[in-house]
Automatic annotation (TrEMBL):
Keywords on record: Carbohydrate metabolism, Fucose metabolism, Glycosyltransferase, Transferase
Organism: Lupinus angustifolius (Narrow-leaved blue lupine)
Gene Ontology terms for molecular function: glycosyltransferase activity
Any one GO biological process: fucose metabolic process
Protein name: O-fucosyltransferase family protein
Family: Belongs to the glycosyltransferase GT106 family.
Source taxon at top rank: Eukaryota
Coiled coil region boundaries: none
InterPro entries hit by this protein: FucosylTrfase_pln, GDP-Fuc_O-FucTrfase
Length: 303
């Protein structure tokens, strides 16, 4: 078909494939996911340079750093239908963003939006302030090197201020790389995300604050490269909403709950794949057997 038409389009089909496949199929998936597929050389070069720079900033911490995937871009905040500061400017910004992106989806007759219920159900994206409080409560100190993977943060000058105050050693691709280094990628969100992915992949701890393909694949990739175990913090956002909205909770009590949440996330880092679980998030044990691999079977470096 390729020879006849010169070009073909393959419709998305990964979600139609069983994750509980025969071992030979799983091994092929593992080789494709974690050995054959890789980013292009320009992306890898910049990404690996930023990894080295983050490790340098974490020199006092053994070269270790924490990466955070923060989903607090304007479109994410708008789509969530959550209320944050609740001010007039936020309401106007969100209404405009919803209309631009979804044209009447949220204002059609009969549509009822309940921000309070959305928050209680753990569906609201965490704010930079909430991320900072969570990390400090989990035991990360003011000097912890942080890499922030994100698009353009909504109202960044205001919303990022508390997080930067709590973690002054916080960096992004824009603060680590020069404009020249990012010039090939800045107009392509997927390429910028690929740089973020590379830096997050090699962090000591990865913190995910919202669902999506980015953390979904990172979780599995990190388990693979760290031989089955990865330090990934995936907070219970329903519990976080209750804790943060509790008017009488003290710092000691909050910290106790957050330390327990961190411990629970760490213990789940070694989870094995169960039938029908995604191999992309749970590569163990299917992808971990490397016995019988010869030098000839290993992939050569990408060109």
């Amino acid at each position: 078909m390729i020879q006849k038409t010169r070009v073909i389009r393959i419709s998305p089909f990964a979600n139609r494939l069983s994750f509980d496949a025969p071992p030979v199929v799983q091994r092929l998936r593992c080789l494709a996911n974690y050995e054959a597929l890789r980013f292009s050389s320009p992306i890898l070069t910049v990404g690996e340079s930023l990894v080295a720079r983050m490790r340098k900033r974490g020199a006092l911490n053994g070269g270790k750093y924490v990466s955070i995937h923060l989903r607090f871009e304007e479109d994410m905040v708008a789509f969530s239908c959550c209320v944050f500061d609740g001010g007039k400017q936020e309401r106007e910004d969100m209404a405009a963003a919803r209309e631009r992106g979804w044209k009447g989806k949220f204002t059609r007759p009969g549509r009822v939006i309940r921000p309070g219920a959305i928050r209680i159900n753990g569906k609201c994206p965490l704010t930079p302030l909430e991320v900072g409080l969570m990390l400090r409560g989990m035991g990360f100190t003011k000097n912890t090197p942080i890499y922030l993977a994100s698009g353009k943060i909504y109202n960044a000058e205001k919303t990022m201020a508390p997080l930067l105050e709590m973690f002054p050693n916080l960096h992004t691709k824009e603060t680590l790389a020069s404009e020249e280094e990012l010039s090939l990628f800045k107009n392509y969100s997927s390429r910028m995300a690929a740089i973020d992915y590379t830096v997050c992949l090699h962090s000591e701890v990865f913190v995910t604050t919202q669902g999506g393909n980015f953390p979904h694949f990172l979780l599995g990739h990190r388990r693979y490269i760290y031989a089955g175990h990865s330090k990934t913090i995936k907070p219970d956002k329903r519990k976080l909403a209750l804790l943060f909205d509790s008017p009488n909770i003290g710092w000691k009590s909050l910290k106790r709950h957050l330390l327990s949440m961190r411990s629970h996330s760490d213990s789940k880092g070694v989870e094995l794949k169960r039938p029908n679980d995604s191999i992309y998030s749970f590569p163990c044990p299917d992808c971990m057997c490397r016995a019988n691999r010869t030098d000839d079977s290993r992939p050569s470096p990408a060109t």
